[in-house]
Amino acid sequence: MKIVRHNLAIRFVHWVTALSIFVLIFTGFGQMPMYKRYNVDQIPGLGWSSDFMVTLNIHYVAAAILIFISLYYITYLIGTRRWDILPRRGDIKESIQIFASMVGLAEEPKNRKYLAEQRVAFLITAVSVAMLIVTGLIKVYKNLPGVDVSASLVFWIAQIHNLFTVILLLSIIVHLLAFLIKDNRPLVSSMFTGQIDRAYVERRHELWLAELAGPAIATEEKALIVEETEILEKVENKEESATGESNETIGDCEAIEENKVIERNEITADLNTV
After folding, report:
1. Which of 53, 81, 114, 162 is deepest in the core (most CB within 10 A)?
2. Positions in the chain whose pLDDT score sits under 70
3. pTM of the entire structure?
4. pLDDT in tens, 242-265
5. Which residues of 40-51 are buried (b: 16+ CB within 10 A; e: fewer)?
6. What is the Cα Rg of the chain in Å?
7. How high is the pLDDT of residue 272?
């Protein structure tokens, strides 16, 4: 049995972000420049990689896509209120415990939808992307006509931009290496299909399974309440209908009795006249 782990929106965000970051890193290094020096532009299909203006324009397009997908994801989180990827108190300690469990030094803690290490990695990635966007926009702004920015500011903005590029690159490498661990491999396919085996969730994401069961139980209880309410309404309607019919019958009987009384009175009056 399969359980939905990532909906289409999450997979869309993940892969668009991954693609845009890959292009940004590749074109960013190309502007140093280094691809001509190390003959990267001699690789078939990469002749453009040593052309500064080409890599710059591609860099700008990829940056615009990254900004768009970041805003989309923030809007998605606020709209759906799905905060399960955000870091929680104690995630650092829990991450250490998870790593210790991988080498047999500790027992793995009960996990939610995302492991503590994944939430910490998300924070590092999110901060890195945010800093790259901010510093990148400043770097673009300084190139606009009529804009005068001090050389020291340009220098430090470039250093910060480069620093977070390295941090992001390292976090991506760690992210990919994590899937070499056997227990993490089922998570890879879930980012393509959106689904994961229930048995895996039961074994490794017990807290998440409990969270999934909560809404399911609530929905079932709500359905039962609605069903019971409908049954009660039907019973009440039948009782009202039966009561109405009884009242009509009683009314008819009373009318007949009244008619009989009137007839008797008329007969009595006729006899008295005679």
Report:
1. 114
2. 215-230, 232, 235-236, 239-274
3. 0.73
4. 555 555 555 565 666 666 556 655
5. bbeeeeeeebbb
6. 37
7. 44
Give the separation between CA 261 and CA 256, rounded to whole angstroms. Answer: 9
Buried/exposed code over 212-244 (b: 16+ C-beta within 10 A; e: otherwise): beeeeeeeeeeeeeeeeeeeeeeeeeeeeeeee
- 59's tokens: 């860099």
CA 130 to CA 149: how far, in whole Å?
Answer: 22
Q: Please report the pLDDT score of residue 212 as a whole number.
A: 85
Provide the pLDDT for residue 218: 46
Amino acid at 216: A
Q: Which of 14, 28, 13 is nearest to 169 (CA)?
A: 28
Q: What are phi and psi of 149, to 5 degrees?
A: -120, 140
